[in-house]
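Human:
Take a look at this sequence-structure pair and walk me through the tokens.
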Amino acid sequence: MERTKNNRCFEELFQLYLPERIRCAVANIQESYISDLEELRIRAGFPLMGVFSGYDCFITPDGRLTGDSSHALTVTLDELNNLFYSLCEHSVYAYQEDIKRGFITLRGGHRAGICGTVVYQGEEITGIRDISSVNIRLSRQLKGCADGLIDSIIRNKCDIYNTLILSPPRCGKTTLLRDIARHISQGSSNFRGLRTAVIDERSEIAANYKGIPQNDLGPRTDILNGCRKKDGIEIALRGMSPHVIIVDELGDQKDAEAIKMAWNAGVRIIATAHAFSLEDFKGRFGVGQLASQNGFERIILLGMNDGERWVRVMDANGNELDFLNQNDWLSHDFYRLHSNRTEVVSQADTEAACTSKIYRDTC
């Protein structure tokens, strides 16, 4: 049911923005594969490409998936330009602040990444011109995907543990973070909802569109959109008196200093970071020091092994508190969202077939 609803939302998105030939090609993709579609990569003079759950394929004019780029629809420069102006609602000036950050947030929480010639004024990026490619990343909010682990980060009826979510790219950190934010803000019969501030630096957590969050982060949540973590944490502490601050993708020393500032003010933190293990994160310059006895108290590790998702919850010392897998608690949609698909997705005549990790040329 949820995937069908998502597919309808995607169809509305494609109808609103995509040029006709590209829209027709995407509309003809089998519905089961639209459910796996994560990104639509559109490059001037190059074949149309889709990134699905764990693999990528080129897309033919009639919507078939193939590993052979010569059979794919080739995007024209006019089509790319028309797409770009549609994404900007035909007002590039109005979206200039978004464009110079390299992406535009779309209705529904989707995002369009932009590449082209970067324009500088001194050390500051002021815009991007001569657009050469657009990457439309499809957003899916999976409510309930954190149901099975939320109790492991709740300290008592009115408090939570400082929690860090770690995983390699594209394993679902932000998807999980959204649902944790919703749980904490909303509360439950045995947990009082807490005032929550989300510092959404990349507009990925709430996905604000014209000031309105496109994802449900709960009724007690305030959102600072497009704001650096350090600045956002300072603003939230000064003006919003949150119990919890949520941030995505910790990186440099400034992030570490901002997290410590929040802790010194008595505020709990839930954050994510790219890492393959707790040891990997601890070795990072700057932020690695946050995973210590006086830092994050719960560590959630996400990973993938031969297409199967695994999750571990640990304390600050790396002691495993629980071991969970998708059969225990992850919703089927969350498991499939970034998992590697094992069956052949398409084979037209003697075209290449795309499999879970590679596509092979069967000609």
Observations:
- Residues 46 and 74 are 5 Å apart (CA to CA).
- The longest strand covers residues 124-137.
- Residues 340-363 have pLDDT under 50 and may be disordered.
